[in-house]
């Protein structure tokens, strides 16, 4: 492998979902200025995110279903052949 092209600061980082107060620990190269004390008693860099799998509508099952049949009928009545 070539030297100097890969990130060097690959470490454990805590990602915190600010919308539902869910946190998880994983490896990342993201730059952070904040730290947090994790469940194991160690201090890790903290990166705040707005959405995760605990708050995203697709994963929580609270997504809006679009009525495509109603849209097509509305289009045809408005712009259909007369």
What's the number of structural domains? 1
Mean pLDDT: 82
Rough outline:
elongated
Number of strands: 4
- Number of helical stretches of at least 4 residues: 2
Q: Assign the structural class, choosing from mainly alpha, mainly beta, alpha/beta, alpha+beta, or little secondary structure.
A: alpha+beta
Kindly report how far apart the N and C termini lie. 67 Å
| Uncertain spans | none
Oligomeric state of the chains present here: single chain
> Helix amount, in percent?
10-25%
Strand order of the largest sheet: 2-1-4-3
Alpha carbon gyration radius: 22 Å
Order of helices and strands: EEEEHH
Describe the structure.
- With 82 residues, the chain is an alpha+beta fold.
- It contains two helices and four strands.
- Strand 1 (11-17) and strand 2 (22-28) form a beta hairpin.
- The longest helix has 12 residues, at 68-79.
- The N and C termini lie far apart (67 Å).
Properties at a glance:
alpha+beta; four-stranded mixed sheet; 82 residues
Short description:
Helix content is 20%, strand content 30%. It has 82 residues and is an alpha+beta fold.
Strand and helix layout:
Layout (H helix, E strand, L loop, with lengths): L10 E7 L4 E7 L5 E4 L5 E7 L7 H4 L7 H12 L3
Parallel strand pairs: 1-4
Antiparallel strand pairs: 1-2, 3-4
